[in-house]
C-alpha cells in the first residue's frame, strides 16, 4: 500500500487545489503545535500526515499528562488494558471540553473508554479482513472524498481489531453492512461532542495495510482512477489498482478533514465552512 499512499498524496494535492481550495488553505496554515500525535504500536497516522504535508508534534503516551496545547490529538493504536492515571484522564477531558478534537484508533478504544466511559463499548474482535463501507452521513462522505459510479471503498480490519457498539449521544459516521453481518456491529467510525470539543473513534487503523480486488472496477489502473477523480497523471505517480487508490485516498482525505479547525460534528453534519470550486462530476464533495 505504500506506493498507493504516495500516489494518492499527489492526487490529493491536485483534487484539493482544483475542487477544495479552502481545505488546502487550512492545511497549509497549520502549525506543528496544532496537531498532536501520540505514538502507537500498530497504527501510524503520522505517515499519512507526512504524505499530505501536515506538520505535527509527536509525543509518547507517558507524555500526555504533561503536554499542554494543541487542538487535535491523534492517539495511535496500542494496548491500554491497564489503568490510566487520573492526571492523564483529567488532561484529556479538559482538552476536549475546551474545544480539542480527540481521535483514537482500534486498541486505543481502551484509552477513550477510560476517559469517556459508555460511549464506545468493545463487543468482540475481528479476523484479518477487508469489508466494504458506506457513508450514512454527509460528514462520512466528506471524509471519503470520492463520488463516482461504482465507488466502493473498503476498510481493512487487522486481526483482533476491536469491534464496538456506540452509546448514547454517539453518531455513527461510516458504517459497514458486511462487518455487521460478520461480527454483529457495523460501526467503522463514530463520534460525539463533549462541551466545546469532539471525540472520534476508528475501528482498525487509519494507515491501511491492504485491500481486496473484488470486481472488475477494483482491478482498474491508475489511469482509470485519475479519470474518475478528474486529475492529471504526473511522472511521480506509480501504478496501483483502483481499490488500493480508493483505500489510500479515502484515509488521507479523512485525516485532512480531522485536522481542520472548524467543528465537524453538528446536528446537520454540515458545518465545514469552506468555499470550494466543484466540477459537475464532484458536486457531492462540496464543503458547504
- Stated plainly, the CATH topology is called Rossmann fold
Number of domains: 1
> What is the SS-derived class?
alpha/beta
User: Percentage of helical residues?
Assistant: 25-40%
For CATH, the homologous superfamily is named as: Class I glutamine amidotransferase (GATase) domain
Radius of gyration: 18 Å
How many individual helices?
Answer: 9
Q: Averaging pLDDT over every residue, what do you get?
A: 91
Give structural notes.
The protein is built from 9 helices and 11 strands. Helix content is 32%, strand content 19%. Strands 2-1-3-4-11-10-9 form a 7-stranded mixed β-sheet, with helices on both faces. A two-stranded antiparallel ribbon has the order 5-8. A two-stranded antiparallel ribbon has the order 6-7. The chain has a single domain (2-285), classed as Rossmann fold (3-Layer(aba) Sandwich), CATH 3.40.50.880. The protein has 288 residues and is α/β, with parallel strands linked by helices. Helix 1 crosses helix 9 (242-258). A hairpin with a 2-residue loop joins strand 10 and strand 11 (197-202).
Helix-strand layout with pairing:
Elements: H1 2-19, H2 21-28, E1 35-38, H3 45-51, E2 57-59, E3 72-75, H4 86-97, E4 101-105, H5 109-115, E5 120-125, E6 129-132, H6 138-144, E7 154-157, E8 162-166, E9 171-175, H7 177-183, E10 187-194, E11 197-202, H8 222-229, H9 242-258
Helix pairs in contact: 1-2, 1-9, 3-9
